[in-house]
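ok so i was messing around last nite and threw this chain in just to see what happens. nothing serious, just curious
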Amino acid sequence: MTMRLPIFLPGIVVACSVLAVGASCGRREQAGETIRIASVLPAEHPSSQALVFFQQRLEELSDGEVRVRLFLNSQLGNDIETVEMCQMGNIEAVFISSASMSQFIPELTALSMPFIFRDSEHVYAVVDGPVGDGFREKLGGINFRVLGFYDAGSRNMMTNTGPIESPADLAGMKIRVMPAPVLVDTINALGAAAISIPQGEVYTGLQTGVIDGWENNPQTAASFRMYETGCIHYAHTKHLMIPDMLLLNRSFYAGLAPHVRAWVDQAAREAELHQRARWQESEKATVEQLQEAGMKFNRVDLEPFRARVDSVYETYYHRYGPEYEAICRRIAETE
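result:
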């Protein structure tokens, strides 16, 4: 069921033209190695700070032999554009949600199924275990090496028209989701109308009424200052827990000297553990920050929301078959 990207990908020429990294598109720096990482997240986001940790640690381990350059806040394009650039070798690495990668590896959709994870520890157990190893192998088949799975917390509903307390409150509301079919289907099943637009367009979309709300974690809401748009109602629906990923171009990795690969692997693992350890602390502090900025938080009874998503499982079990259903069941059963 692995989907391979086409050889010629749209947007590559344009994306390369805006790199402005002091080297031609797809060519390594002459002195040592340079790893360019693209992300749609702004510098203030805790996951961006984990990328800074990776940058500093790798440069420290290599004594400057390997440099890392960060291109945050969609500087090089949206998530799909930068994934394509990384796969082709026009940049070396990309930080992205596993939901966005599911359009290239359909099995990754399992990580985006509604209510499939119990908590962050459950996510770690899955991605660090046999299920995660299977995803690493499949991503290797389309020229990516996974440098880490990062905590992205739970995704919750944020709206500008009033608090969401039950699925009925979502009726008629346009809610932004990432460009992944399972997210669209989940939000629709919960009772809203899902609108798939890039992260960089959410702020304006809320301001102009293109969308009535969106779903994400507190840290992302704070990093993009979404409360300035009037989107101040935050309901803890916890309908999704989708890990992020740091991906490296596999061909680039294979071309590194063995001792350089060891530095990259060590720095990547340390950054992954650093980010996970800091996430929970960051979320608590961020909620307090958002409350001070005027956001209003409310808990909900999750059972009515869970009861709405059985159809999503039926749809994807039918679409992807017994192997996919087995992956989802292994995730649910992982301790």
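not much to say yet. The CA atoms of residues 40 and 74 lie 4 Å apart.
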